[in-house]
Amino acid sequence: MMHDGAFSDPARERELFARRLFVGTLVTLLLTVVLSLRYFDLQISRHEDFATQSNNNRVLVRPLPPSRGLIYDRKGELIADNRPSYNLTIVPERSQNVEHLLSELGKLINISKRDIDRFNKNLRRRRPYEQTTLHVNLSESERAILAVNGHRLNGAETSARLIRHYPHKDLFAHAVGYVGRINERETQTIEAVKYSGTDSIGKIGLEKFYEAQLLGTVGSEQVETNARGRAMRILDQTPAVSGDNLTLYLDSDLQRVAFDAFQGERGALVAIEIETGGILAMVSTPSYDPNLFVTGISQNNYDGLLYSNDRPLFDRSIRGQYPPGSTIKPLFGLIALQHDIVTTEYKINDNGYFFFKGIERPWRDHNFARGGHGDGVDLSKAIIESCNIYFYGLGVKTGIDLLADYGSQFGLGAKTGIDMPSERPGIMPSRAWKKGAHGQSWFKGDTINTSIGQGFMLTTPLQLAVMSARIASRGDVRTPRLVKSINGVEQPAAEGGAKIDISPRHWDYMHKAMQDVVHSSRGTARSINKGLDYKIAGKTGTAQAISIDAEEKYDSSKLNKNQWDHALFVAFAPVENPKIAIGLIVENGEHGGSSAAPIARAVFDAYMESQEPTKLVTR
Amino acid sequence: MHRDDFVRQLSSPGGDRRPSRVLHIDIPLLLLLLVLCGIGLTVLYSASGQSIFYVKRQATFMLAGLFAMLVMAQFKPRFWERGSTLIYLGGLLSLVAVLFFGVGAKGAQRWLDMGFTRFQPSELMKIAVPMMVSAYLSKRYLPPRFKHVFVATLATLLPVFLVARQPDLGTSLIIFSSGFFAIFLSGLGKRYLVATVLIAVAAIPTLWFYVLLDYQKQRVLTLLNPGEDKLGAGWNIIQSTTAIGSGGWSGKGWTQGTQSQLNFLPESHTDFIIAVLAEEFGLIGVLSLLLVYLLLIGRCMVIALNAHTIFSRLVAGTLSLTFFVYIFVNMGMVSGILPVVGAPLPFISYGGSAIVTLFSGFGILMAISTEPKRI
Q: Which regions span the lipid bilayer (chain B) (predicted)?
């Protein structure tokens, strides 16, 4: 053994230890006596007092659940409310024979094997005299049957409580989300007291984001019980306080129009009120009925949704990330104008191929017939006809640093900060991003792909709408949001950011070019201009779902439909005084002009029509 | 690890060949532990509202604990002595990790998520600190000099503060006691002892104003006047003393305690379980349990006195005194003479990690008790 200092003396050390251990033993015994005396004092000397107190201890405190805040659209139409639901519960202590009771009940109403299994499982975990649920959501006739037979069903009770209800079913499923039973994981994080009267919690969407406001405050009642714990009389009550009501920017009529316009196709649309950044419509199709989740979805139903090829549970509007394709061109054009990289006079000759020095393989224009857009392609024409060759050159000359810098000012490559959980950020590629994500340097070829919204670039439909709104408002930066007011109190606008610095004549030029996309005879979205009595500015886009070689021709007839290109459209209206901006995608819709733009037109029409009466009033 | 650390005297000539010796089991210790587990499961059944679910889970924890104890017992005390610093440093690192990456529930951050399971480093420290301090001091001339006392104190206080920050006052108190007992048993001079007491007294205001959180202060105030806070922490104390007091000499009978069965008593199957035992089995039940505890501690003291090395003596002595701290803190808090700090009653309260830790400690005691004398 190692020692510093003097040599050791085992005998002395042992004796010292024994003495110390003896002291420790004495203290232990002394404290044991203290404990024993305390328990003697409570249990023997003061036994009478405590026995009386325990006998009189018949006051139970029971939680009173608050009713969850309601959600309205901007016109006051209910989107989420609470409805009474009646459950059949059993208190075994009050039944002579639970088995018998169950079989009696089975004869009266339909009780499934699953009900019984769950009941038996919960029975093992409950405390005596606690109600255990046997069957949820009793129908009116079932309640009547039970009421009539109540006298011979000792131990069975129907209990009423409020459950969440979504009257519009699948229309708002993704934006509003749903509540569901509190699960094991959530019990670990929530404050037990706040949820003592509630068994559900916001799972996704607004229901989750505004959980704290919607929940409300639990109340309590003191109940006198008899000696066996049965409630006899309410002594005192602190009422529960309902949760806050939310009013949204969403317009359920507009939402319906947008939803129906997809005609069952997969896709997503976001419409923004430009003045406020409020979301007017937010659609992801296909959708599902959120009411299924409220009391617990059946495995069958859930599997059906989960394994469907159309992925109805997936919120494409804020979680779907797609290459923006040509919809990015107005933004990149604005950057090049602002920094004098191209002028409005600058023209190119487009023969359908773009060669970059040192690289043999050319970049081709997949969107247009071979042979290119011909002579004299200026920026305006490149926007109207969506010329890739023009933008390859523009992108290379502008450089990725400027593109990335402005891209993020227009809301790309980062979460927009909307008041919803689980938003995805998309990708606005840059040198730093590529180094971080791929560990590689940035190549010129990457810039070329980026300049037509392909390559690494990814955007969500929400980001497309935000970009469109920022172009429409000539650079006003507003954070998109869904909730307009809470309990009638208007919510202040979230901190957006500095106005984007681009000179007025460039905005004018680009708005005109985007207007011609729709209104000129060569515009890619000209199909939607028939019978328009207001002006729409837009830009179509096509995003590859699979990669195509330069020498190969994209031929949809040879591909499965789920490999077809995605169709995109960004737009705003009316051009002179923009009020509403839209970003949308139709998955495998092929062409922005033919399949995406008509959906935007339907939404714009509905919006403009809804503005009419206010116009009359102001006149 | 030396080869002979694990495969010991199996073939040594003249070695004891009784199965208990070969498996390194201390029979009296094992029997007392089994009695405690039996009492624990019986009371738990009643305290959990007659839930077989909880009893089964607790029994599973106990089996896991017994297994852990057997494994620990197979290593020589020399192995624990050599490994203690490493285990201690590992524990300290994980405690720091908990501060940054810890997961937790209800405002406290105590676990590290290891993917497949959750690991609570503060539990490890309940064993690592006494072993490390004992190993450190046993290499020095005893009684220890100021420098060594200083190092040992620092080694104790570091984890104590880290655990108190989580916040987990109960566990940090246990860790503090274990370090203190190791230093005390090593023969700390009387002057130091007096100084320690003085410093402790002087530290109370500092703790009150700078370390304790509001809710912890509330609990101390509640102890002084439980009637003030009828619906919060005071409720627990009022209900638990009522439960204990109404038990009388022989109690209301198993599963017949109205306080616990009718849901008046909070935490009745975890920290406050002694109130259920007191209500249903009366003072006779409480004193019988105390007797079993004392017999267990007594057996541990005998093991400590008979141990062959200074390290073994210090560890055995420290673990047995610390075991009493668990009992005193829990029974004191439930009966209203100590503030509520969240400390389980050993082998009786429901809870997996505490049980496994306790058994592991007794595994080390068994390793010490069955170590053959070196020639």
A: 27-47, 59-75, 87-105, 146-163, 169-185, 192-213, 272-298, 310-328, 348-368
